[in-house]
Amino acid sequence: MPATVTAFETHPTSIDGLRVVQTKQVVDERGAVREIYRESVFASSGDGSLAAPRQVNLTSTCRGAIRGLHGEAMTKLVGVVAGRGFGAYLDVRTDSASRGTLLTLTLEPGRQVLVPNGVCNGFQALSDGCLYLYCFDAEWVSGMPGVAVNPLDPDLAIAWPIPVDKADRALVSEKDAALPNLADIAREQASGAVRLERETR
Q: Residue 61 pairs with which residues in a beta bridge?
């Protein structure tokens, strides 16, 4: 069969600066080649860019497990490169017009998310051995600025597709289960309650 080519595209979301990215990919009988990142293409799209990624991480996660919600002071390009996932992105930036907006979407190879500095990023693996790739525009260091929110916050009520027992360390880490809820963070930011908005894709 002849090769099929899917073009690079980006799509805006209800979170200011957060874009859903369709990677360029070529598929033939052998499988697929996906272009994870090309600086010139991102720059020409006008949707921002990572410039040169300073750190790249790959996580392998068992089915049902959650990582996040983490909002470090860095821009991230994230996506599933093998398996399937469910992404959750929360805007907690005090100066953002979309503050309090929660975006959820399914993730599979070929679909990425460009996450702006300060927006919380999290996901749940929907298949065993789900591989989630992070490209950062800064190197992660312990204690770097940022905000992290409990992924099981009852006010957020994220509809994780697979039920999570908060006491099961194979599904959520002790650190993430102990993160503050969004209401607690709003009080710490001395900015009052955060009005929640939702978008599902």
A: 130
Phi, psi angles (nearest 5°) of residue 41: -70, -45
In a domain, 31, yes or no: no
**Domain CATH for 79:** 2.60.120.10
Peptide bond preceding 196: is omega within 30 degrees of 0, i.e. cis? Answer: no
Q: Convert the pLDDT of each residue in 184-198 to its tens digit.
A: 998 887 765 556 566
CA distance 23 to 4: 13
- Which phi and psi (to 5°) does residue 120 adopt? -75, 140
Q: What is the pTM of this model?
A: 0.90
Instruction: State the total domains in the chain.
Output: 1
Angstrom distance (rounded) from CA 161 to CA 22:
23
pLDDT at 41: 80
Which residue range forms the structural domain that includes residue 82? 50-200
**Residues contacting 178, CB < 8 A, separation 6+:** 150
Bridging pattern class, strands 85-91 and 101-107? antiparallel
